[in-house]
Structure formats: structure tokens, C-alpha cells
Amino acid sequence: MEAIRYYNRHSGNIETEQVYGEGFLRWSYGNPLGAISLNAFVKRPFFSKWYGQRMSAPESSARVLPFIKQYGLDPADFADAPESYRSFNEFFFRKLKPEARPIDADENSVVFPADGRHLGFQKASGISGVFVKGQKFDLPSLLGDAKLAAKYAEGALVLSRLCPVDYHRFHFPVAGIPGETRLIEGPLFSVNPIALRQKLSYLWTNKRTVTELRTEKFGTVICMEIGATCVGSIHQTYTPGRPVRKGGEKGYFAFGGSSTITLFEPGSVVLEEDLVENSAKQTELYARIGTRMGRFA
């Protein structure tokens, strides 16, 4: 299988992803024996719960410093010292210093909700060829609501993929008033491109959440979180009904790679040029939370 390459907005370079657990992923999603294990154990919530408990045990804290070194993370960005984390999971959903992720101040902008590799499409109903030619997005299945899907079919969609090496808190892309989070239960397949090249449908069959964010300028924005292997827990930290600022924290994922999806009403947002151009070539764009994802149409 080919390497995962993406465009880094901050460096201006095409880079190759260091995949955490790459050997296991390629075996699970590319080997017939791996497929048996995948469907018997790995996709099931109990597997992710068991692995999450391992990552929450006190002895797992010994993994923190080697992980930081191996993946070149900058502890200067962390809100707490690396030695202070009582488990690997606590480190995994660490907070950052506010100055490490400044939020774009333009009142006409919307920002990426998470650090990650992003794909953006101006029209959700026209998405095809994601990771592999012929794979189409199933918006009604994703939202679990055909009427809601019809409302957003002609609007913009941004898929943000978080790797295990990324900062794992997710944020609001614009200011507004968020409603209650709706949970849609499902299995926990990987959302790494190694897996999504096999079946894009993991995005709309995995466990996921849907939150509607009412805004003054952009209509109602849908914010979604997608669970994945070893991410059985999606934690919401916001308060429904209480106004939030752009870039305000919405919640966090416990251990593992995962994704968010942001949906906009038709005609409300124009996505950034570098995002749209790279996505048209099936190339993800790496950008940090708080940087511009689009602007008021």
C-alpha cells in the first residue's frame, strides 16, 4: 500500500505521515487474516474500551516521553509539563497554551475545529473519489436523518482527520449557540486512509455525534465527531444553550485517531482555496485549529 502524503499549509511542503501502529493497520485492513480479526474483535467497542483502560493505567505514563521524542512534539505548547501526566491517556487529551493555537480574528472567517489533515468540498452532495475513485459520500446515513441531509446536500463539508500524534481536543469553528449533542451508535473501525481506501462508509457507520450550532451569520452549522478504533469515548465539555466563541473548546477524544466533520448551509461559506484545490486531488491539507477554513459567502 502506498504511503499517506499530505500538504502542510504551515510549511508549504508535501509531507509523508508517520502512522502510529502502521503495521497493525495494514495487516488489519489489507490481509485476509487481519480482516477476520478486524470484524471479530477490533471494530467492537469492548476492544477499544480494553485498550483505553490500558492507556489510562498509571504505568502507561512511561510511554509519554518516548512518544514526544519519536513524533517530534513540542512540549512548549503544552499547558502542563510532560512529566505531570498520570497516564498516557491524560497526556493524549492534553490541553495546550492559548497562544499555541491563536484563533483567526476576522469576523467573516470560519476556522478549522481541530489540528489535523483536512478535506474540504464546496458541495456535500457532489463528493466522490475520496481516497479511492468511485467512493461517494452518503450524507443521509452520516447524519442518520434524511430530512437534515437534504437541507445540507448543497452546502460545504469539511472532514478533519486527527492522528494519534495530534492535539485531540476539538473546537467550535464559529461563534454561536450550540444545541444538545445527538449520539448515533456504531462500530469503531479505523478512520485512517489505510482503512478508508477500503471502505469510506466507515465514516457513516462508526459511532458518531451530531451537534447543531446556531449562528447569526452562517446559519446553523453542524459539528460532528466520529469515533474510531481505540476511541470509544467522545467527551463533550461545552454546555448546550450557552453561547460559545469561535475557537472555543467543544470536547475531546480519548486515545486513538479520529475525525470531525463540519457541515454548512448552502451558500453560507466559501472554503479556502488551498483546501479545495488539494481536496480535488484527494490530497489532505494539514492545518491547525484556529486557522482559516473558509469565509462568509
TrEMBL record:
Coiled coil: none annotated. Pfam families: PS_Dcarbxylase (PF02666). Keywords: Decarboxylase, Lyase, Pyruvate, Zymogen. The keyword Mitochondrion does not apply. The keyword Lyase applies. One of its GO terms (molecular function) is phosphatidylserine decarboxylase activity. GO terms for biological process: phospholipid biosynthetic process. It comes from the Bacteria. InterPro entries: PS_Dcarbxylase. This is Phosphatidylserine decarboxylase.
